[in-house]
Fold:
Amino acid sequence: MKKISILVGSLRRGSYARKIAENLAEYFPAGYEAKIVEIGGLPLYSFDYDDPEVTDMPLPEEYREFRETIKACCGVLFVTPENNRTIPACLKNAVDIGSKPNSDVAWKNKPAGIVSHSVGSMGGYSAQKNLRLALSYFDMPLPGQPEVFLGHSPKLLDENGKICAPDTVAFLRRYIENFVSLIEK
Ligand SMILES: Cc1cc2nc3c(=O)[nH]c(=O)nc-3n(C[C@H](O)[C@H](O)[C@H](O)COP(=O)(O)O)c2cc1C
Structure:
């Protein structure tokens, strides 16, 4: 089984991002196991944890586990809303945690997909662009066009949390196919 880590940029119980992520997990082909990796319990990042000169702040077990999970997967799919024109703090915290230590960066060369959403019409554009900027430091291959900005997210989902419009489902399935082709390369 090839593992895909899905990171959801929302801690909200009724998060649309989480529901979208659950739909996307089902679009991966046989031989892939796509799972949401929880980031809500990750302590807020401080470099003291990674600084060998700081001896009274041992690396949190949650960091070790998160970094190992990312390193063991063959691709990372980010599904995120936008907070104040950028990515939510929980997601930035996860990005920072995976970015250290410099000698062993969990994100390095890992293929990544990005799906952003918003309840309005902008589809989380700024969040996605900011996330791309942060990830650009790690040489993570990303699918090219089309990028995925999902607007009016509450209307995308039916009462069972399923993405209902067939053209949106087809569009998202194609995005996952592109992402998988990138991983296979
Ligand atoms: C602190 C905060 C800031 C927000 N800023 C933005 C924003 O900049 N752009 C936007 O489109 N929506 C913004 N929203 C609305 C969120 O996109 C909306 O609450 C969405 O449902 C959150 O995603 P979720 O359902 O996956 O939790 C903001 C919401 C919160 C709580």
Remarks:
- The chain has a mean pLDDT of 97.
